[in-house]
Amino acid sequence: MTQDRVNDFAIKIATVNGTGSASANTLLMKSIFRSGVPVMGKNYFPSNIQGLPTWYEIRVTKDSYVARSGKVDLMVAMNAETYTKDVREVASGGYLIYDSTWPRPALLARDDITVLGVPLAKMCNENFNGVRTRILMKNICYAGVLAALLDLDVAKIRELLAETYAKKPALVDSNMKAIELGYQYTRENFQCPLPMHVAPGLLGGSKTAGHLLIDGNTAAGLGCVFAGATVAAWYPITPSTSVMDAYKGFADKLRTDPATGKKNFAFIQAEDELAAIGMVLGANWNGARAFTATSGPGLSLMNEFLGLAYYAEIPAVLFDIQRVGPSTGMPTRTQQCDILEAAFASHGDTKHVCVFPRDPEECFYFTRDAFDLAERLQTPIMVMSDLDIGMNDWMCPELKWDDSYVPDRGKVYNQDEIAKLEKFHRYLDVDGDGIPYRTLPGVHPKGAYFTRGSGHTQYGVYTEDSAEYQVVLDRLTRKFATAKRLVPKPVIEQDAHIDIAIVAYGSSDGAVREALDILAVHGIKTNYMRLRAFPFGEEVDKFLEQQKLVFVIEQNRDAQMRSLLTLETRVEKSKLRSLLHYSGLPISSEFIVKGVLAEVQPKPRKLEGVA
Amino acid sequence: MTFLPKPKVRHPSLPKNSLGLTRRDYEGGLSTLCAGCGHDSITAAIIEASWGIDIEPQNMVKLSGIGCSSKTTAYFVSGGHGFNSVHGRMPSIAMGANAANRDLTYIGVSGDGDTLSIGLGQFCHAIRRNLNMAYIIENNGVYGLTKGQFSASADVGTKAKKGEVNQQPPIDPVLLALTLGATFVARSFSGDKQQLVPLIQAALKHKGFALIDVLSPCVTFNDHEGSTKSYEYTREHYDAAVQADFVPFQREISADYAAGDVLPVVLHDGSRILLRKLDAGYDPTSREAATAAISERLKKGEFLTGLLYVDPAGKEFHDVNETPSIPLNQIPFKALSPGSAALTKVLARYR
Questions:
Q1: What CATH number is attached to the domain comprising B99?
Q2: CB contact under 8 A, A264 and B350
Q3: Which of A79, A407, B89, B186 is most buried by its number of CB atoms within 10 A?
């Protein structure tokens, strides 16, 4: 361990779920963040309430990387059940901390790591009463151990506890007592700090100022409140539920009339996902901004209604917080595995607009954009987040709201406009952009029309006539072409002299950015295009055309985005090389670097000064 | 929202309601159902009922799923928006629409397949939420568009057109609704317009979920001998327990009703339903008694009809959700989006 590991290492904490370790981990991560040192946190938790193994990874990263490095430098092994696996995972030269109340000579099997035993249970049993309290405090206690080893600011920890338990001051003292126990024992028995530690002073000022530590589901829920969504309907499913929890929490606070107690929103827990999306369509059809949040299995159930929304042209915003499939899969693990399902949801010729946020910041802004797009295009917009973005705390720039923002409610005729029409035709392409005008119920009898999923003419009348049916289908194609111009553009970083590229989307972005830096050190430079929406605009085709070799990086087995690119752009299939990460853990920079290096040989560096 | 259309040229002798509209103004497209279909009689009753209680056409929202019955929303009140959704899922569309705008009048038309098979879940949960809508089941015991399969309301022993005899017990929507806590439960017969019209009016005005199960024979697939949903069988086996007359808020109760015979039920807007017991022992204000009486008669293959149970005091969805009286879709954006200062404040805990 050398000086260069200061402010640059990864800790992993292995515990049992339901034992309060989440509070300890959040406390640790946030105290580092508050000290001005960038952090990344990933929670690997089981689909269970209590008793199964769970891990939390905290990466201290002076360069503000937001992905996993793929390495563990310090392991806190609190779960005897997973010791073997946990010991194996520590990088050579790293550290392992365990509860030495019960000595484990087997843990000393590796001679390339340092094992530090702290009698956590013993200390907590001596200092706290009650079985549950002792278990909880044991976990807070390891936070004290780490505070000593990593040189964390104990005052900051107290400050955070005071904020968390503002209404229960007694808990601040008991938690602090546990912190102090671990802290003092460690200071007295080991050399502190470790060579790898946190040193805010070395960063030349705070690198976290102006940033938040927030998860994507919270940002999305908040975005729904600010975008003016009034109807939220959902069926509980991991990992999407916290989008709804966040919306409800913020709306209760910000949308309840203090004088009357009345709520300027409707929050409906549906009986299943079929009903949830139905409610969203009913509300949007009736002029409210409405949304739902779900995950893979829920999206499967919503397919029928999504086809209706596509064909009857009803706006909707749907958050898909993707988790590991197929079927129930691994509900608490992450993937990007619903891309094709979302893009083509439902039977018949259907295509849907999808946006791919990369982090909580984009979850917030894309939420606002999704409501605008939904109403402008009169179609469902899928916000394709994932468990990694949705449920982990990410460091991202402060969220801003532009008070001059005016929502785009799309082409909706008002009362006067309807009155002036000779006759209203629901599905007529008046403006030539494929987007028809709509009317809302209760406004004017001349605006009344019949919404249906059965064959209809451009005048909104039932039909089984081939030509009349095709007129509407072809206009929908034109509307989708219009969507290409309106959706978020890809982010392209390109050098005209380079013809190798990486294409990625969503939560892979952080790992790609770090990989690009590492590859540059290896002498490999690549272009980068981050897709942010489907349908793909002309820029996507142009970029792909200019490359010789394109690595498409995704977190699924079947290369779903690569398939979508081959279907929906002019790209030659043979150019596209997939790097597929589908273990259920968030993709790491290491995975991408290895994948690229396997195909592309580093250019020998020119030796300077040699004759 | 109030809007009075320009007067249309009509025969001057056509009677007008208080909005100056004739029955013609409540009609819709031409029915494409089979001649003699019970559903068309129900459509006629809806037209009569809507006209009679002065509903502004644009304020009526017509919802349906899939099936013969679900087509009928196109055949009445063409001045109101219609939504022919997907099979069995109309209640969720109605829920969302109602959440967005609580001021409109919602009427759903469904069938026994749409409600009791594919849509059973949504039907039950709409009742649990006490969604404010009138929900009419056009119940004929048979799938029409797919040519004659039994539905979940087919009685044990009833015979299909091709001779098959149904063995599975039926789901009775009226009993089901009663067990789920419905606050307005009625049954009627498409051939009894006199009974049906005031029931529809009361259902439209009831605050909460109002179910009317209307026995509506299918002339093509279920009107033969051996069927328990034929015109003939229904006429012989239905028995009105309670006569319900609807009296809009403005109107005086006519002198026909002698005090004591009539139980007035006052609805949220001041209008009244006058219940006259035709069956002396029947009590439409007791869920338990109503359930027992209906079950008793069903065992004998008989249908009690009329407004079988009513509770005007139930809390509907918006009461529970505590939504304001202004429809959510009409709240100005400024009142919905909290603004940058509020954002800075709520983000404090994430810094």
A1: 3.40.50.970
A2: no
A3: B186
CATH of domain A214-397: 3.40.50.970
Q: Is the pLDDT of residue B6 over 90?
A: no
**Looking at the 3D structure of chain B, how many domains does it have?**
1
Residues 39-58 on B with a CB inside 8 Å of A are 56-58
Please tell me the distance in Å from B8's CA to the nearest CA on chain A.
13
Tell me the nearest-neighbour CA distance from B249 into chain A, angstroms: 22
Q: How many CA atoms, within 13 angstroms, populate the side-chain half-sphere of residue A85? A: 12
Nearest to B96 among A227, A231, A250 (CB): A231
Contact B298, B172 (CB under 8 A): yes
Q: Which of A600, A586, A598 has its CA nearest to residue A65?
A: A586
Question: A441 vs B350: CB contact, 8 Å cut-off?
Answer: no
State the residue range of the domain holding B38. Answer: 23-350
Given an 8 Å threshold on Cβ–Cβ distance, is B61 in contact with A286?
Answer: yes
What average pLDDT does chain A have? Answer: 95
- What is the C-alpha separation between A52 and A384, in angstroms, rounded? 29
Tell me, yes or no, if the two domains A3-203 and A491-599 fold the same way.
no
pLDDT digits (tens, 9 = 90+) for B196-215: 999 999 999 999 999 999 99
Find, in chain A, the residue whose alpha carbon is nearest to that of B71. A452
Report which DSSP code applies to A166. Answer: T
For residue A163, which phi and psi values (nearest 5 degrees)?
A: -70, -45
Write the ipTM.
0.95
Q: Which of A211, A270, A442 sits opposite B92 (nearest CB)?
A: A270
Binned at pLDDT 50, 70 and 90, residue B279 comes out as: confident
Residue A283: CB atoms within 10 Å: 33
How is domain A3-203 classified at the CATH fold level? Pyruvate-ferredoxin Oxidoreductase; domain 3 (3.40.920)
Asked whether residue B7 is assigned to any structural domain, the reply reads no
Contact B83 A444 (CB under 8 A): no
Which residues in chain B are contacts of A399 at CB distance < 8 A?
Answer: 343, 347
Cα distances (angstroms) measured from residue A129 to each of A19, A136, A165, A183, A540: 16, 11, 20, 20, 62
Q: Where are the alpha helices (DSSP H) in A35-130?
A: 83-89, 120-127
Q: How far apart are CA A178 and CA B194, in angstroms?
A: 78
Q: How far apart are CA B336 and CA A380, in angstroms?
A: 22
Where do the domains of chain A lie?
3-203, 214-397, 415-486, 491-599
The chain B residue lying nearest A209, using CA atoms, is B351
Q: In this complex, is the C-beta atom of B83 within 8 Å of any C-beta atom belonging to chain A?
A: yes
> Is B109 within a domain?
yes
SS3 annotation, A132-151:
HHHHHHHHHHHHHHHHHHHC
Interface test with chain A among B3, B63, B76, B92, by most A beta carbons within 10 Å: B92
Between chains, do B93 and A212 touch, taking CB under 8 Å as contact? no
Contact yes or no for A441 and B336 at CB 8 A: no
Nearest-angstrom CA–CA distance, B246 and B312: 14
Q: Are strands B238-247 and B272-277 parallel, antiparallel or unpaired?
A: antiparallel
Query: CB A213 to CB B99 under 8 A?
Result: no
CATH C-level class of A491-599: alpha beta
In a domain, B97, yes or no: yes
Query: What is the pLDDT averaged over residues B37-42?
Result: 95
* B92 interface with A at CB cutoff 8 Å: yes
With beta carbons less than 8 A apart as the criterion, state whether A286 and A375 touch. Answer: no
Evaluate whether A400 touches A226 at the Cβ level (below 8 Å). no
A59-117 per-position pLDDT tens digit: 999 999 999 988 999 999 999 899 999 999 999 999 999 999 988 877 778 899 999 99
Answer whether residue B100 is part of any domain: yes
Nearest CA in chain B to A257: B324
User: Tokens representing A483?
Assistant: 């969507």
